[in-house]
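TOPIC: backbone geometry
CONTENTS: sequence, structure tokens:
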Amino acid sequence: MEKIRKWVWQHEKYPEFDYRYEQIAPLISSVTRNTGKLEYATRILDQKDLDTVVVDSATDEIVRSSEIEGEILNRDSVRSSIRKKMGDRPAPSQDSSTRHTDELADILIDSSFNPAPLSEKRLHGWHNALFPTGYSGGYKIDVATYRSDEMRVVSQRGYGEVVHYVAPPHERVAKEMRKLLVYVNHSQEDPYIKSAIAHLWFVIIHPYDDGNGRIARNIANYILAKELGLNHYYFSLSKAIAEEKQSYYDTLERTNNLIYNRNFDFTEWVAWHVDAVDRAIKDSLLEIEKVVQKAKFWDRARNFALNERQIKVLNKMLDKGDAFEGALSTKKYAAIAKTSIPTAKRDISRLVEYGLLRQVEGTAGRNIRYEAAVIENESSAP
């Protein structure tokens, strides 16, 4: 009786990853164009603004990659760690980094800035940085070494257990990983497609007791950073994935299960991944636009003698951007600046007079609201 094959690694063509390029080509064209825009946008930024983009993107990548796996990190701690690793050491009173966030920053910096060939030793180092105590969620795990037992991806449904995926037997892991590393280090595949396939291939092998998703995304980042020729890390793939988290898991599950993937075709996954990279780059272009607008806003603001309260409130508004919920009211100004309502009114009046704040259209009287008067299209980004 023939053994039932359910997982892609059981297929006779594995580890070939066939896809229909004609369906992916439009996505490749789009992401290539946007990568060019991103390269141009980052070249025209001054160093201070460029550093802001890099730190923000790196922070997003670490926070959102952990979030995908259910771990919520303190963003300020991650940001402090990134700044330290990039040589911008904050004052002790402002340093909220932890050993854990320092380790996560080390992984990201290594995967994004170190073009040396990927190796088993390097991957084990990343894994050790993820789990320096040897524990994951209170459970002892094998660290900096491949798993020594069966690996299944499961979830609870009522009183039962749903098996989403079963990885190859642990005896095959080392051999499988050698093949993957040869592909990562020597394949001449298009970088966007190569990144997608390496990401998937690592998930298929699932070589570690835990942390496989985060390391898979770091491998994808490594390929994109090394082969696209970008000197810095400007966008967050994990942020784009986190925003479509259920689709990410569903696409992986359909791809890895031969019940759904009867034709052993990986077009859907490659297309999904290339589109995620494209969304990440588009998001970065928008963030760069905001950084440039903020810089130009402060160029105008230097013409006026602003007090500390006004600077604090404007900074908070510009940092939050569209997320500054409800725009600015007199009451909110007073709360942020820790001042009285009459003083808040005077400060706001001056900022409106200077052209740094403007009244939100349709608001008046007690419901009057203000927004930062950022001039549209004053950015130099394409």
